[in-house]
Design goal:
The chain has a two-stranded parallel sheet. It is built from five helices and two strands, in the order H-H-H-E-H-E-H. It starts with 9 loop residues before the first helix and ends with a helix. By secondary structure, it is mainly alpha-helical. 14% of the residues are buried.
């Protein structure tokens, strides 16, 4: 899930670098017309992944992108560094 809105197509870039296939789904704001934290972009992602919001842990490095977590229903984690992320994920399980 990316807030990529540049004139260059991110999906095409991912294909050109042969890394798009490592993702289960790709949702780019420039392609769908919504940006994080708009709940609609998360709904599009969850539909593509066939998951319920409450099944999702969403990690982002921008606090604003996580601001609609309680409204949408996913579990937000603000990324600050690998060590803290690892510990927070361990605490969940």
């Amino acid at each position: 899930l990316s807030n990529y809105v540049s004139g260059v197509d991110l999906s095409k870039k991912l294909e050109n670098y042969a890394i798009k296939e490592i993702f289960d789904a790709v949702v780019v704001s420039g392609d769908v017309g919504f940006q994080k934290p708009d709940p609609n972009i998360f709904k599009i992602l969850f539909n593509k992944l066939s998951v319920k919001p409450e099944e999702v842990i969403f990690i982002d490095d921008a606090k604003m992108s996580l601001s609609t977590a309680s409204l949408v229903g996913y579990y937000p984690i603000l990324y600050t560094n690998n060590f803290d992320l690892e510990n927070e994920l361990k605490d969940l399980f």
